[in-house]
Structures are given as structure tokens and as C-alpha cells.
Amino acid sequence: MLLNPHFFLIKNAAKMKSEKISLRFAVITSIVLALALSRLLPHPLNFSPLAALALFGGARYSNRMAAYLIPLLALWVSDLFLNYAFYGSFVLFYEGAFFTYFAFAMIVMIGSVVMRKFSAKNLLMGSLSASLVFFLLSNFGVWISGGLYPLTAAGFASCYAAAIPFFRNTLTGDLVYTFAVFYAFEFAQQRISFLQVKPVNH
User: Fold this and answer.
1) Mean pLDDT of residues grouped by 10 in the chain (202 residues)?
2) Angstrom distance (rounded) from CA 104 to CA 96
3) What is the DSSP code (8-state) at residue 117?
4) How many independent structural domains does the chain possess?
């Protein structure tokens, strides 16, 4: 029985592609984890890498489940450490966490839809959209919990009004981190072959 030499070429090509995807996956995951853990470093209030983390995961993971699961797990682990640092105990889920994590998942979706194609325009649109989504959903969670503001129209307005001064740092942090991480990855992708595997939706 003669073996077709093309079989080995195809098999080796598939293996090499799989190895490239695995290496690319590892690099993307390392960046996501590094961004999450950087929250433990001193930084201005609301100036954080969270939106960039979610946008990057959504845009650069080729597997849709990984795009949501890994950034959400990274956020959760960093929350555990932050809660321990501030309160001296590991709090699995703080009050209002649902709205924060839901906003985070929405930002991952924005990354997967808006920022698949690299461009300054897409980065700007994605970052601004992420800031707005997080502002609206996270503060809705603060209001609906009823702990700080009455569950009235006046309480609703007061909650969002009180959050506006902090929104500037959110916008700035999201823009800075998003442009930095996407441009750095694009720079590396153009020079390192295994990063050049094109994302494919599943």
C-alpha cells in the first residue's frame, strides 16, 4: 500500500498551525492576566485596565467561549485579591457584582464585534462604548441595590450625577489602556510569526 506524500504534508501543516494557535492563545491569556493583576498596583481612582482587558479578549481570542470565560475569570480572581487587600478576607461576590460582570461581558461582546479589525477608529469606538456601558450598568447596580440611594426617580438621578466626576478617569483609563495594549499586540503580531494566526469565529 502506497502512502500519499501529501498526507504527511497536510498533517504537518495542521500540526504547525495548531502549535501556532496554542502559542498565540498563551500570549493573549498572559496579557489578559497581566492586565487583571495590574489592578493591584497603585493607580488613580477608576483609572483601570478592565475595559481594555475585556475588549482585547473579545477581539483577539479566536474561540468565543474563551473570549468570555478567561477575561471574566481574570476579573473575578483580581477582585478576590483586591477584596482581601482592602477587607482582609476573600469575598467571592460583592454586592452589585452581577451588574459589574454583566457590563464586563457586554464589553467583551463589543470587542468581538467592533474591534476584530485593527484601526484607530475601531479602538476609539470600542473604548468609548465600553466606558459608557460600564458607567450605565455599574451605576444602575449601585442604585437598584437601594443601599445608598432611594429607589425613586430622584434617587436614580442622584446616583448617576454623583458618578459623573469619576467618569473622566474611566474614559481616560479605558482609552490609554486600550490603545496601549492593542497597538503593542499589533506591533508584536507584525514581527512574530505565531501571533499572525487569523482569528476565526466559532
Assistant:
1) 44 48 90 93 90 96 94 93 76 80 96 93 97 96 87 94 95 97 94 71 44
2) 13
3) S
4) 1
3-state secondary structure of 26: helix
Task: Identify the helix (H) or strand (E) that includes residue 150.
Answer: none
Instruction: Provide DSSP, 160-174.
Output: HHHHHHHHHHHHHHH
* H helical segments located in 96-152: 97-114, 120-144
Q: Residue 137 and residue 109: Cα distance in Å, rounded?
A: 15
Looking at residue 12, its pLDDT comes to: 45
For position 95, what pLDDT does the model report? 75
In a domain? residue 8: no
Q: Give me the CATH number covering residue 60.
A: 1.10.1760
Strands (E), the chain: none
Q: Let me know: does 156 contact 149? Beta carbons within 8 Å.
A: yes
Rounded-to-integer distance, Cα 102 and Cα 119, Å: 26
Residue 14 domain-assigned?
no
Let me know if residue 153 belongs to a domain. yes
The reply to whether 184 falls in a domain is: yes
Residue 200 pLDDT: 45
What pTM was estimated for this model as a whole? Answer: 0.83
Domain limits at 189?
19-196
